[in-house]
Amino acid sequence: MSKIILSVNSGSSSVKISVYSASLDQDPKELAETQIDGLTAPPPQLKYTRGSQLICKDKKLEETISSQNDAFKYMLDQLISDKDFSAINKKDDIAIVCHRVVHGGDYETPQIINEDTYHHLEALTDLAPLHNASALEIVKYLLKELPQAKNIAVFDSEFHQTIPEHIKTYPINQEIAKKNKLRKYGFHGISYSFITRSVAQFLGKKESETSLIILHLGSGASVCAVKDGKSWDTSMGLTPLAGLPGATRSGSVDPSLVFHYATNVGKLSPSSTESLHISRAEEILNKESGWKSLTGTTNFGAIASSDDPKMKLAFDIFVDRILGYVGSYYVSLHGKVDALVFAGGIGEKSDLLRKRVTDESSCLGFEIDGELNGRKIEDLVQEVGKREAKHRTLVCQTNEQFEMARVVAVDEKLFG
After folding, report:
1. Which domains, and CATH codes, for the chain?
2. Is residue 156 flagged as an active site residue?
3. Is 183 part of any known ligand binding site?
4. What residues are paired with 19 via a beta bridge?
5. For 48-100, what is each residue's pLDDT tens digit?
6. pLDDT at site 366
7. Which strand ranges, in their side-by-side order, compose the sheet holding 392-396?
8. φ and ψ at 38, to 5 degrees?
9. From CA 251, how far away is CA 236, in angstroms rounded?
10. Which residue, among 235, 232, 231, 233, has the nearest Cα to 223 in the 3D structure?
11. 17: helix, coil or strand?
12. From 156, 233, 351, 369, active-site residue
């Protein structure tokens, strides 16, 4: 029997809902996708695709939508009231809602959310205050308004539970570390899970025999070393702040830097609330850093194609930090790497970044093919490297929404 599954991806300034029809042990089929962007830079904008038909794109909304939950409610109402969308006519038509939850602590598998797991996830919010809270607001709304639907949390940190002890442990007092759950968790795991499976299929290999260096490059960016199909190491840490710089994130910096930045960084931020205990330091490093602080824009396309010295500096910093991880993970995997894989919005769109990173790591055996790299990325997995190179260079169009729905559809306990 097929069921309607919603995949909900609540970001820092956007919410995306994908609607799937799914049967147990079958790949879900996407029926519609709707997204509201610009929650932090009004007016919010709506994109809505029904099947293969684009209904609207970048439609400016006049309604007051100030939170992720507002955006979710607006899109849910729109899906229900769309006369041409027969899959959902009323709230009761929705059987399962899966939520991307950034920080899952020690959870190794997706969790059905009830009162108990909800409070456990709430307690994890302090580890990712800028990420978990908005997803939980939507969960809270659904538990009340759609009591018949099953809510399932799928965690970004889950894929990285296989990282070995010596890699995930911080060299600090271990009693305090364990008590406060201070270790490397890693994120973008839903994406890395999808990419690992998709690339293994493309290469005609078993997942358990596939080793990759994956670059998930977007406004939030990270790198993952996949060894025999499992996460071996990743650039993000206790929170998504560690590792690569992003649109507004600093990435890894000397921990002492924050104390020299300003005198009041340890105090709670003015935007801190009862559910969000954000220090001024967290806010600066997460929201007021990255390439926006260097260039004034979060548009990486504009940065990559500009000769402006500020833009060039931001581009060079990003390349340098990526190369640091590519080199480190190549050694950590003992050179047994099937492919270097670019993914995420920037990884898919910026042929200039792909060329620069691959050229600079050519000593490891990665080589870009100019003609292939210049083509539009249309396939799920697409070759951009030279065939005769020692290692493959690929682009994968990741799909976190699909991965969440698939995880539910292949698990009888979750699918029910």
Report:
1. 3-155 (3.30.420.40), 205-396 (3.30.420.40)
2. yes
3. no
4. 6, 32
5. 999 999 999 999 998 889 899 999 999 999 999 999 999 999 999 999 999 99
6. 98
7. 230-234, 221-227, 212-217, 339-343, 392-396, 381-383
8. 80, 30
9. 8
10. 235
11. strand
12. 156
296 annotated to a ligand binding site: no
- Number of residues in the chain: 416
Residue 225 tokens read as 């070393």
Query: 387 labelled as ligand-binding?
Result: no
pTM, two decimal places: 0.94
Residue 416 has what pLDDT? 87
The three-state secondary structure class of 237 is coil
User: Distance (Å, rounded) from C-alpha 416 to C-alpha 411?
Assistant: 8
Place of tokens 């500009």: 306
- Tell whether 400 is in a known binding site: yes
pLDDT digits 0-9 by tens, 313-339: 999 999 999 999 999 999 999 999 999
Least confident of 29-33, 103-107, 302-306: 103-107
CA distance 233 to 160: 8
Asked if residue 263 lies in contact with residue 335, where contact means CB atoms within 8 angstroms, the answer is no
CB 287 within 8 A of CB 298: no
* pLDDT greater than 80 at residue 383: yes
CB neighbours of 367 closer than 8 A, spacing ≥ 6?
A: 358, 385, 386, 388, 389, 393
